[in-house]
Structures are given as C-alpha cells and as structure tokens.
Prior knowledge:
Number of helices: 18
Helix content: 40-55%
CATH topology of the largest domain: Rossmann fold
Number of domains: 3
CATH superfamily of the largest domain: P-loop containing nucleotide triphosphate hydrolases
Shape: globular
Amino acid sequence: MYLSHFGLSQPPFRITAHTEFFYGGGNRGAILDALIYAIRQGEGIVKVSGEVGSGKTMLCRMLQERLPAEVETVYLANPSVSPDEILHAIAFEMQLSLPRDSARLEVMQALQEYLVERHAQGRQVVVFVEEAQGMPLETLEEIRLLSNLETQHYKLLQIVLFGQPELDKNLARTEIRQLKERITHSFTLKPLTAAEIRDYLMFRLRAANYHGPDLFGPAVVKLIARASRGLTRRVNIIADKTLLAAFADNTHTISLKHVRAAIEDSEFDLSEKSVPWPKFAAALALLLVGVGLGVVLHGFLQPQPGGQNEPAVVSAPPAPAPVAETVRTNPQREGSMDAADIVTQRLAATQGWLSRQGSATSSIQLMGSNDLRQLRWQLAQMGHNIEMDQVFVYRTKINGQPAWTVLYGSFSSRAEAAAALAHLPEPLKANRPILRTLQGVRSEIAEHQ
C-alpha cells in the first residue's frame, strides 16, 4: 500500500472505529466528557444523534474505553427486536441464566435483582443501544420502563441511545412522549467545518506516525469538505483513496486531480454544483489518475507474481486446535490460500461453525467492514497472527449498506472469551475488538438474510 511511501506506521483513514484515532475537535471531545459525566451522575436516559458517518460508533467505543472500571457496559448492536426480545437480549448480555420462554415479569424481576446486586457492590450498569432509530416504538417504550428500575436515590440502569436523525422524529411521536420526557441529555454530532476537516486530516496522519509537512493543502481540503459534507466517514474514505491515487502517481504532492479521482472511485452521489469542476477536466483527471488508482487497488487485492506491493499470502491452517490454544503468535502452517478467496471461504465455514455450537455462548468481534477489497487484505494479514480456521465472517448491513463482520473463536463463557481477547496478538488489538454473544450474532444474521 501507500504506507511506506508516506512514512506511515498504519492506515490513518480506516472507517472502522479505532479509539487511538479519536478526534476531539468539532465538539466531539466536549460531548464525550459530557456523556461520561451524565453516566457517572446516574442521569437515566441519554440520547446521541447524528447523520450516517458522523462518528457515533467512535463515540460509543470511546465511552466504553474511558468509563471507569466500576461501570459495567452492555452493548446492543441489533435493536430491531420486539419488546419481549429486548429484555431477553439485555439479560443474556448480562449472563443471566433464563429460559428463552421466560415470561416478561420473570425477566424483569431477574434484571432488577441483578442491578440491585451490582448497586450494592458499588457498580453501575449502562446499556449502549446503537442504531436506535431502527428500534420499534413498542421496544422504545420498554426501554422507558427499564429506566424506572431504581433505588430511593439512584437509577439502577443507565441507557444511552445512539441514532440517526430519524430517532428524533420517532421520539417526537405522541405515543412515546413519556420516553422523551425521561431523556435528561441530548447531544448532536454536527458535520465538521472545512477548518475542522483540515485539523482532522492532520491529526489522523500524526496518529499514524506521519512526520512530514502538511499533505492536504487548502484547495484540497476545501474539495474534500465539499464532497464529504463534513461527515467523518466520507472524509476517511476520500482521504484514503486520495493518498492511494498520489501513490499511484508516484508523488508526495497531493493535488485536486487525486481528490477528484478518489471521489469518483467512491461513487458518491454528488452533483456538479457540489463538486464544481469541468467535465472535460474530470475526464482527463480520471484518465491520468483514476486508471492508475484502479490498477493499484486491483494489484493489492489480487495475487501478484512478485514485487514490493505483493499482498500477504496466508498459509492453510492445520487441524483445528483446542479453543484455549488458538491464540498464538506466528503459528507454523503448510500449504497456501489465495487471499482473494479468503472471504468466500470464511463465509462458507461460518455457516457450519454456527450450526455446530452447542455449549459455546460467546465470540470475539475482531472488526467490521463495508469495503470488500479492504476486508480481503485485512483477513490475509490476520493469517500471520492467528489460526484462520478460527476466523469467521458473516454478512450484515451498516446504515442499510452491505457489510461484513469478522469473528474469532467460540467460547463457553464470557469470562473465557474475555481472557482470550486479552491475549490476542497486538496487531489484532488495533481494531479494538469486542465481545459478542452467539445469540446476538445469529439474530443479526437472521435479520439481514
């Protein structure tokens, strides 16, 4: 890739949420501090809204990392469930042993006993709900009832809703006005300004150990700002492909033609008014740069006979090892596996793996991606650190767009999964892996089939 070309230690503009790349500008740092304060003060229900790609998931990850150890977090990535299912989902994430056919009152009682016990131990419990705009109104009402669990002086459960602007519209509906009244703090992630995007780009480069002069000049930043509409995910996508275009052009000077090629390759729905360059100049830029960009992308994602940009080749794994022994560094292997086929192979393996899980309850989510080409490259890199027969991939959606989630291993308890997560090789920890329940994985797969 372009890393050595620009003197980078790692990709600076990945769209997955890496907390070491958290940018506190654009009021993000202030909102994070306010969220931590609200949770520590036991403020009940808190709402965070923002457009697709504005940084809600990053903020959620930062909260999980910054909250003190006595705050226990429950993460719900699939809120599109019925009222009864939401109670079971929360109870399952808390490792409460309840039959699947338990009555609502029984589940609620078990949750209250668990929360009272945690409160007596001086601990707090907070539930993070992502993509809350997709939660049915009846389930949102059940969330309100959960917020009623309290002692004489303290709420037993804190709830943070992360959602797109549609969440605000849902909360404005008359039938759930009681929930809206329970929301004590509301925060909005606004798009970054051009000046903030300039600082953001440089911050991400520095976080990836770039030590040179500014790569993105004023005109380049202005075009990126206009095309991205200030959304950090779009900024990341455009900046990443812009660096790749400059690398393909064998230059360290980023120009407007590199940005234009990146925008075109990203297939953003942009009008001439939002990105005003002449059609002839755009065609010429794509001819000179876009073709080179496509060649470079193809070169990194397909096997090459040789050369410094050859993609990693992952050797075929040996027979499956016991779960406790699957985390190791630089395992020895025999044979080879075509990197371009890794996704297909792991998708097929995942179906059988899920059907065989009996006592296993948990797994480790290594990463998620909506870029198939990038996913292939990252899976190939994983093969240098862990056994690929313990890596599983399934299809899902992010903001309505096709995406893929990568899991590692199957574990009989959350504690066992947490121990394995702690001993993951360092390169895999860069993506900030999290624990997942297999029940939650199955539900997510079923939802997007």
